[in-house]
Specification:
Shape: globular
Number of domains: 1
CATH topology: Maf protein
Oligomer: single chain
Number of helices: 6
């Protein structure tokens, strides 16, 4: 395990991000940030992921100025369209029809903020995910499981949805919710982790 100098705040209630950090042995508290996530006109998804991750971290850091706060945002795009979380069953089916049999992009933004130390570091990872062809029956059965409803793009790469993924180019954990190798590097760079493994 890495030696950790202080407990960070995760500005997200995502159980997937929580699990990823727990698996790495990172000590953290959760304080979810509620922000306006509307897309700005002409905004590139890379810029969107960076802006929202930073906004989430800054909101929590505003009342925890001496603490390190980790904010994150995940966006899915295809044909220039940003695919959010499905609004209902019909929307989940629409999103899955849109991405089935094709390759889409997952953009993962992550921001580490400490106001007292004047740290505001942001990274964005890009992963290409190719889906298998899905029949209408496949889509309806998958939506009926309930798994797609709180996921950008309407699928979970680490869950039942894994059966519909044929190829991933780039970071797998980025698709889950955090590009963990880059997050760990960020924590080491800014002294949250000492960078060496301990027994």
């Amino acid at each position: 395990m890495y030696r950790q100098t202080e407990i960070i705040i995760l500005g997200s209630a995502s159980p997937r991000r929580k699990s990823l950090l727990e698996e790495l042995g990172v000590k953290f508290e959760i304080s979810a940030a509620d922000i306006d996530e509307n897309v700005h006109a002409g905004e590139h998804p890379r810029e969107l992921a960076a802006r929202l991750a930073c906004a989430k971290a800054l909101k929590i850091a505003g009342v925890n100025s001496a603490r390190f706060v980790l904010g994150a945002d995940t966006d899915v795009t295809i044909d220039g369209e940003i695919l959010g979380k499905p609004k209902d069953e019909a929307d989940a089916c629409r999103l899955l029809r849109l991405i089935q049999g094709r390759t889409h992009t997952v953009w993962g933004g992550c921001a580490l903020v400490n106001i007292a130390k004047k740290i505001e570091a942001v990274i964005v990872s890009e992963t290409l995910v190719t889906m298998c062809a899905m029949t209408q029956s496949d889509i309806k059965r998958y939506v009926a499981t309930g798994e797609p409803f709180d996921k950008a793009g309407a699928y979970a790469v680490q869950g039942i949805g894994s059966q519909f993924i044929s190829h991933i180019a780039g970071s797998y954990p980025n698709v889950v919710g955090l590009d963990t190798p880059r997050v760990m590097a960020l924590l080491k760079e800014h002294g949250v982790l000492d960078g060496t493994l301990s027994a």
